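Sequence in, structure out. Go.
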Amino acid sequence: MIDWLEPALRFVQYVLLLGLFGWAAFRILGLRAATWVPERSGRSTAILAAALAPVVSTMLMLAAISAMMGQPLAALDVSMIQAMTLSTDMGWAFMVRTALLLAGLVAILVARKVTGLAAAAFCFGAALMTLGWSGHAAGTEGALGSLHRISNGVHLLAAGLWLGAIGWFLHLTIEAHREPGHVSAMPLLTIMHRFAPLGVALVATVAATGLLNAQLIFGLENSPVTLTTTYGLLLAVKIAAVAAMLAFGAHNARLSRRMVFADVAAEPTEDAASTENVEPSEATALPALRGSLTMELLLAFVVVGLVAVFGMLSPMMMT
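Output:
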């Protein structure tokens, strides 16, 4: 068994599920009123990701069975795979997740406009929540176990919507640079400014559910001991990366707010001089936003990669 295969597949699965849910959900919640955004924008990439997601999920299931049985992938037989799939929480989660991912793919391909996106967002969001049916969240029993799964699911949904917003904003700033006639800077900046309250709510949700999950996994009072483990160290790096994402997000919010209010202040004046004062600001804002959003998205990939790794580790000291 290749040691890096399972965490690598976990990383790809997290990226695909978070990205698919974020793409569909933010298109509905954040961009529905933006009629200037092409209806099919990002659709081909989403179809490719939706087609790839069940394949990656299946590969990850096989890799996990191989690791649990202590056998190479080539040595697995049908009866062994069937037994592990039908008799474990991980197996049931895999089957439900695969069905939801296929339904989401069909929703993108067949359904139209908002209805199709809403159905796809529901399927991808539900598939994302099944990731909590195994691993640390599944290790908590009873009522606390149900609370842990719900908290983990809400954590993932909020994170997915946050990442979807980052991805859409980066995509649109790039399009505004390539095709300024189709994607105007000011409407984009206005949408980014209006996203700020939702962004704060998403960050608060991620933070609150993250703290609750930590309490249920290892107990916050045990943090000093947990930080001496590999799990704890990777968790600390994740928190630092999220904090850096918040810094870039705050920079984006300040920049979009300043540009929107500058445009409002300039509206009553129609002389050429005032127009010249606004245009260079927009030309400066978009490259700055592209750079900041790129860094924020790269940090998000780092966070997801860390989760893929330390999600397989124990938070307890090994003796």
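Check: The first helix runs from residue 5 to 29. DSSP finds ten helices and no strands in the chain.
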